[in-house]
Description:
By secondary structure, this protein is α+β, with helices and mostly antiparallel strands. It contains 3 helices and 6 strands. The protein has helices spanning 37-46, 51-79, 155-178, and strands at residues 8-19, 82-90, 93-98, 107-115, 120-135, 142-152. Strand 5 and strand 6 form a beta hairpin. The radius of gyration is 19 Å and the shape is globular. The relative contact order is 0.20.
Amino acid sequence: MEKRSYSRVAASISGRFRLMSGTDDQPLYSGWSGASAKDAEQALQQAKLPDAMVQFLATMDAKLDAILGQMQRDTLREDFPFRLRVSQISGAGIRFFTQEVLHEGSLLEVVLFLRQYPLSVASAAGRITRCSTHADALSDNAQNEYALEFTVINDSELEQVIGFVFDQERRIIRQHRWE
Length: 179
């Protein structure tokens, strides 16, 4: 029986990737590691401002997040030219589909869009550990499926991935409870 360090869930997450030439390649993506939305909300509540001002600032913050998120997506398209669709995710890696042909051992840097709004992005570098091809019933194209094991992921990105997995597990449990 296979032992896992992290829980894995089915998912449907879009992302982008680039091929890396070697393990010495520096990551291109560097995410925002500043205060989270929850931290900002708490700071506003403790600022002793009138409720109307707190609401206004929170709304402005959300709008700025949306604008910056769209700008970031445009930049990511340039730096990470290939698209992927994640089918499973864990803190150890992902399983994904892409039209691109990759090989076992290929090194990639991936950027995953965990949430669309507010935009939540996680990145990691990894190595392809498994490859397979599936016929696509809806088109004449074959879908290439790969398993990517994370080899480099910083703590804040790993926390985002684990948080996403935890949220998905909680959602699944709630769905089963009401069935």
